[in-house]
């Protein structure tokens, strides 16, 4: 089975009321942990590569690792560029084997966002690649993204129909209260599901994406802090709210911070308990297992995508 686009994944997810996990990857162990869990639970997945991941691991290494994952698992996998900031990086990924790209023009005016997004869509569609756009701005920090609370903007439902019609995007990321990073809420966690509902009404059967949707699992935060880390006041998106969104128009839920924290927690714990170990395989193996456990939890309890491959 070759890499696939997200088109059929999203159609089925929308119809049946579940979502696909958009999981960010940076190295072999993270990819293996995600894919092993997805294979076990027969879940389709989107493996996402950010600009930071491309700088860290190099484009060609990540593509070959994901291709190996497809060969090893036999499950549907879409390889997606997360938060492409300009046409050039999207073009590079389209030409370099990705089956999906995101162009994030949310920092620009509506007209400039439309212009940039359509440029990417036109190039991608000619080559059989799908495109995710974004309207609204999420707060938080992740890789090169750094948006303050005052600069965050909810998606305006009045703009979504025009944006989709003029750009031709295949899916749309919206801002309803999620945020990037591990410190998402200072007060009571809330999602503007009313905005999501209005978007769904205006764009029936159109796939919506939630970015910044890690729940920041407390068990792993506690392990990090127990073994020398400092992640006080880390809070994520409640999983019951995410699950509700997945039964609506949300067809992809992006999860990154949860994976980073679990990976780090396992390594910290192992090195504390076995301080003489210096073989990377010894501490990366439990880190990979932690990723697999987190992904299994998400597939069953948040996404509802088990058995949908």
Summarize the structure.
By secondary structure, this protein is of the alpha/beta class. It has helices at residues 7-16, 28-40, 51-57, 59-73, 87-95, 110-125, 157-167, 193-202, 218-226, 239-246, 257-273, 280-303; strands at residues 20-24, 45-50, 77-84, 100-103, 130-135, 139-142, 145-147, 171-174, 179-180, 208-210, 250-255.
Features:
alpha/beta; 48% helix; 309 residues; three-stranded mixed sheet; TIM Barrel
Characterise this structure.
By secondary structure, the chain is an alpha/beta fold. It has one domain (7-303): Aldolase class I (TIM Barrel), CATH 3.20.20. 48% of the residues lie in helices and 17% in strands. The protein has helices at residues 7-16, 28-40, 51-57, 59-73, 87-95, 110-125, 157-167, 193-202, 218-226, 239-246, 257-273, 280-303, and strands at residues 20-24, 45-50, 77-84, 100-103, 130-135, 139-142, 145-147, 171-174, 179-180, 208-210, 250-255. The strands form two sheets. It has an eight-stranded parallel barrel with strand order 1-2-3-4-5-8-10-11, surrounded by ten helices.
Secondary structure elements and pairings:
Elements: H1 7-16, E1 20-24, H2 28-40, E2 45-50, H3 51-57, H4 59-73, E3 77-84, H5 87-95, E4 100-103, H6 110-125, E5 130-135, E6 139-142, E7 145-147, H7 157-167, E8 171-174, E9 179-180, H8 193-202, E10 208-210, H9 218-226, H10 239-246, E11 250-255, H11 257-273, H12 280-303
Parallel strand pairs: 1-2, 1-11, 2-3, 3-4, 4-5, 5-8, 6-9, 8-10, 10-11
Antiparallel strand pairs: 6-7
